[in-house]
Amino acid sequence: MSKKRGLSLEEKRDKMLEVFYDSQSFFQLKDLEKLGPKKGVISQSVKDVVQSLVDDDLVFKDKIGTSVYFWSLPSRAGNQLRQVRAKLESDYAISKKRESELEGKLESSKEGREDSNERQAALIELNTVEKKHKELQEEINKYADNDPAVYEAMKDATKVAHESVNRWTDNIFALQKWCSKKFPEARDKLEELYKEVGISEDFDYVE
């Protein structure tokens, strides 16, 4: 014997709506969990099914005192479904209009682009010119190091670096002089310190 197939979610929703429509009354969740199994919806799934109906505005709930009540009337659900249908029909009409406009633009864009021998020849010529341009650009890049503008920029950068190095040399000499005057008794220690930080005896300005 084959196992009985369980209800799908949509089938459960329909069965729970029947509970509301048959009685047109108000229920607490515990009441619905007792009535659900009579329609084939197990009590453990009643809460989730009812909540899905609430989310879709097919079932309504409200808190009265400390209790929460659920209800749904066929007329109200029918109005809700009619509103949904009207919205879908409106969206469909807008989509069809947009589709028609796009098709019109597509046809217009094709004008003057019909395939022909002249167009094919023009495309071949365009590809040839683009390829040649790319080759020339690559050739120019090879000689970038000899570009006068690049040379001038490098010369300016070298000058700035040269001035910066000698300015720091000035600062180091000034610091050495200050240390020698401030700590004459520690001259030997200062010379060791200079060596530690890389200041050799031939340290001087860059020509």
Structure, described:
- The protein is mostly helical and about 210 residues long.
- Among the domains are: about 10-70, Arc Repressor Mutant, subunit A; about 75-105.
- The protein contains seven helices and two strands.
- It has helices at about 10-25, 30-35, 45-55, 75-110, 115-140, 150-180, 185-195; strands at about 60-65, 65-70.
- The protein has a two-stranded antiparallel ribbon.
- The radius of gyration is 44 Å and the shape is elongated.
- The termini are far apart.
- The mean pLDDT is about 80.
The helicity comes to 55-70%
Output the radius of gyration. Answer: 44 Å
Q: How does the helix and strand content classify structurally?
A: mainly alpha
Indicate the mean pLDDT: 78
Sum up the overall morphology in one term. elongated
> What's the order of the H and E elements?
HHHEEHHHH
Number of helical segments with 4 or more residues: 7
Q: How much strand?
A: under 5%
Number of beta strands: 2
Strand order of the largest sheet: 1-2
